[in-house]
Amino acid sequence: MKTCLECSEKIVGREDKKFCSDSCRNTYNNKINKDSTNFMRNVNNKLRKNYRILAELNTEGKSKATREKMINKGFDFDFFTNILQTKTGNTYYFLYDQGYRSLDNDYFMLVKKEI
Question: Could you write out the three-class secondary structure of the chain?
């Protein structure tokens, strides 16, 4: 007899079932996936906000934006997920698939990686 991983009720149905209901499955997964500390939650929120700003400013897959415009929307240049150094020496900062690199006169090239 199998029991639900969330509420320990008896499971009826398929042999490989782990939860008695969608509600139990959602509750269980939400507990596992929640941010464990305020620090993690704050960093993840900043990453999400930066990502949304880049996606909003870069609808074509490649565009330019000023530092002032990005900052006015709330962009925080201290938070990114990875750095890409190109063969030509350009440094791109990425938030998942959205990236940017510094240009002259406080402009930034915004790019989207094809995944």
Answer: CCECCCCCCECCCCCCCCCCCHHHHHHHHHHHHCCCCHHHHHHHHHHHHHHHHHHHHCCCCEEEEEHHHHHHCCCCCCCCCEEEECCCCCEEEEECCEEEEECCCCEEEEEECCC
